[in-house]
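Friendly challenge for the regulars: who can give me the structure tokens for this chain first? No prize, just bragging rights.
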Amino acid sequence: MVGSETTYTPIKMPKRKWEVHPGRNKFYCNGRIMMARSTSVFYFTVGLIIITMGLFFGFDCPYLAVHLTPAIPIIAILLFIFVMATLFRTSFSDPGVIPRSTPDEAADIEKQIEVPNPNNPTYRPPPRVKEVTINGQTVKLKYCFTCKIFRPPRASHCSICDNCVERFDHHCPWVGNCVGKRNYKYFYLFILSLAFLCVFVFACVITHLILRTNETGAFLEAIKETPASLLEILICFLSIWSVMTMAGFHTYLVATSLTTNEDIKGSWSSKRGENNYNPYSYGSICRNCCAVLCGPTHISLMDRRGIAVPEVVTPDSSSSSSQQQSPQNYGATTFTEPRETVDIRHDETSTEPNP
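First reply, four minutes later:
Bragging rights claimed.
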């Protein structure tokens, strides 16, 4: 009796969307963690914070807890945990990446923009810009040739990560990610808490050395007993200026409801009466701060762990869609208002801005 052989055909598992993501990003934990491709500076940031705090907990906290107050190590631990939590939350999350248009959507947008004129060889197509009205201020929406979308207001394309990001602030190599709509709150809290931690550690180490010097009678003897304190002072002294400056600058941005990108370009004025007033401001410093710090964390537009479906351009659908008015497509949000002017209100929080 001859046994029959059974042939098994291997089943090809479908890919997740994070595996075929066109941007320059790295993903971990099956797409749950999203970072920029270059993360060496981020690891340097994490190592510098951990090493400095390890020296502080090992050489300074035991002495200060006995000779000054036991509250010092408790405060240091709480600040350290908060700094690391906000850093990881900023670095590992989607900053607000806008998905690129599908081939059908891109073809439909091209049909709307490109108006052929064979009778005029010098004809140039109209500029790829749309105008919308936001709280009485005209804002231009630029077309992204990479993502094939009209970018929403305040969005910009990051040349490092190769993604369009909502409410794009800047690309920060220290956190290894872009800073945008979904993680700016945590980035600001990280910078602010890190500034407090630097000042706290610097003051505590100086106090430790002064107390040691009073006991031994010589500064060099105090350094010999706790040599790590000198290294901590050097790290904090070199870091505190840049961290404090960054915290102050972003406090100004939060108070005026601006982004780093807008501030560098000089897009808006802080005065309401001027022609180029900021349409995204809520009218007061307190309300602007609450909009950033107390506002909700917006959902991600990327279904990173979803199943990737191959997309094919269908000529029938593109031709039929050209016969009727197509909605304005921003890649993630569809508006059905007329193409010329749309009135967009704040979507950051439910608070209405002052007129």
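Residues 316-355 have pLDDT under 50 and may be disordered. Residues 184-216 form the longest helix (33 residues). Your move, everyone else.
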